[in-house]
Design brief:
Blueprint (H helix, E strand, L loop, with lengths): L1 E5 L2 E3 L5 E8 L7 E7 L6 E7 L4 E3 L7 E6 L4 E6 L8 E9 L1 E4 L3 E5 L2
Parallel strand pairs: 2-11
Antiparallel strand pairs: 1-3, 3-8, 4-5, 4-9, 5-6, 7-8, 9-10, 9-11
């Protein structure tokens, strides 16, 4: 499975961004897709996941601010990020998990005034 992310960029604190992840290749009927992030000097951490059935799971630090969604027909997963904080600055990676993991190349999100 190939994953291509888009939508990152520079935004001021309190602003919003929407990330997209388009999947191609062999998509299994049962899977989990999600977003992870990695800030400089830190380990990669889970942000949010969504199953093929639409069940979502969030890290505590984004609950109420970020929303993950999917369009199965387009094989695309989205991450709507609102009320962004400087500590949200990181490279955001898309993940597809079925029988193994696939990762996108990452998209930079910078929150700064």
């Amino acid at each position: 499975v190939q994953l291509v992310e888009s939508g990152g960029g520079l935004v001021q604190p309190g602003g919003s961004l929407r990330l997209s992840c388009a999947a191609s290749g062999r998509i299994f009927s049962i899977y989990v897709m999600g977003w992870y992030r990695q800030a400089p000097g830190k380990e990669r951490e889970l942000v949010a996941t969504i199953t093929n059935g639409g069940s979502a799971n969030y890290a505590d630090f984004v609950k109420g601010r970020f929303t993950i969604s999917s369009d199965n027909a387009k094989k695309t997963v989205y991450l709507q990020m609102n009320s962004l904080k400087p500590e949200d600055t990181a490279v955001y990676y898309c993940n597809y998990r079925a029988f193994g993991d696939s990762w996108g190349q990452g998209t930079q999100v910078t929150v700064s005034s």
